[in-house]
Specification:
This protein is of the alpha+beta class. Helices cover 32% and strands 34% of the residues.
């Protein structure tokens, strides 16, 4: 019995020694793989360092070199480029294998060797195993020049319009505001409007009509109005994706400003350019009618004044002539009276 146990023990020790010897001879291996050996400038190249070990790989430290004139380093796990040489420090955990991926971009035509100059593997107890160097060659060529197909440029045509010159799609043909008035009046080519409502108006409904049934219409903003500025928009999109946006600035007045602003609005409405022009024309016509009515009367009055003036002049002249004749008569009478008086005096004297 004791001999049997001794034989079994010796056999087990022999197997363990053989395995340990094998493991010590080759504890880990390294394989370098590239995604492709032939590529053109501009393409991406992937290089993978595959490490396999008999013990868990806790950490990998490696140094990889490449030709910077042919390849450009992009990224890599735990990798840092120092100008043609990539230093790799990566923690692996408890797996017995590790894969480190490096990404490059081909920048110009040429040949480049990607070489693993040194690679050390550390197990969980930080025992180091050095791996032999490895390399792979890649060839980069210039991309083939493709013949550019000549295309004929077409001049974009203007959108179709109706008999009134309004586009048949992509615009509004009508815009109405409930409880408010658009300023300026709606026109499809005017894209911004103002609406002023009194304090009592709390909702303003806006409705637009598109030029085509295929147009898509989208509203933004809320019908409920707060005191102050409320911005509403209407966006019309045609079948080709062209968009036209109309903006409506709705202002709800404060309570105290309602009457004043309403009066101002009425005054503004009464003095609009169109009304002013109409009033001016009417005033001119009225003035013309007044002139036509008054001118004959003025002529008559002027004629009467002239006749009256002539009569007054003649009357004054006649009166002046009459006064002169009366003066002459009075002078003659005085002369006669004086002569007769002298005669009587002479007849009454006594002779001596």
């Amino acid at each position: 019995m004791k001999k049997t146990l001794c034989l079994i023990l010796m056999l087990a020790v022999t197997i363990i020694c053989a395995v340990t010897a094998f493991a010590d001879n080759e504890p880990a291996t390294l394989a370098l793989q590239t995604s492709q050996s032939q590529l053109t400038a501009g393409e991406t190249l992937t290089v993978t360092l595959n490490i396999s070990a008999v013990k868990p790989v806790g950490r990998v430290s490696a140094s990889v070199s490449y030709d910077q004139s042919v390849l450009k380093f992009v990224s890599g796990s735990g990798a840092k480029d120092t100008g043609g040489t990539i230093q790799i420090e990566q923690l692996n955990g408890l797996d017995t294998s590790a894969a480190i991926t490096l990404t490059f971009t081909a920048v110009s035509a040429g040949n480049s060797n990607i070489s693993v100059n040194s690679c050390a593997v550390y197990d969980a107890f930080d025992e180091q195993y050095s791996l032999p160097a490895a390399s792979a060659a890649v060839n980069v060529t210039e991309p083939q020049q493709t013949t550019t197909q000549q295309t004929t440029e077409t001049t974009p045509t203007s959108p179709a319009t109706d008999a009134n010159g309004v586009p048949t799609q992509g615009v509004l043909t009508d815009l109405t505001v409930v409880n408010g008035k658009l300023v300026p009046p709606f026109m499809y080519s005017i894209h911004e409007y103002s609406v002023t409502v009194p304090y009592d108006v709390t909702k303003v409904e806006i409705n637009g009509k598109t030029a085509s049934l295929q147009d898509h219409i989208w509203y933004t903003g809320n019908e409920d109005c707060k005191v102050g500025l409320n911005v509403r928009t209407i966006t019309v999109t045609d079948v080709n994706g062209n968009k036209t946006t109309y903006t409506i600035n709705v202002t709800r007045l404060e309570k105290d400003a309602q009457i004043t602003t309403a009066a101002s609005s009425a005054a503004a409405d009464s003095t609009s350019p169109a009304d002013s022009s109409t009033k001016e024309k009417k005033a001119i016509a009225d003035n013309k009618d007044i002139k036509q009515t008054l001118m004959p009367a003025l002529y008559i009055i002027l004629a009467v004044l002239v006749v009256a003036l002539v009569i007054v002049i003649l009357w004054i002249k006649g009166k002046s002539s009459g006064s002169k004749e009366q003066d002459k008569k009075n002078t003659k009478q005085r002369s006669k009276i004086k002569v007769s008086g002298n005669k009587k005096g002479n007849n009454g004297k006594k002779k001596k």
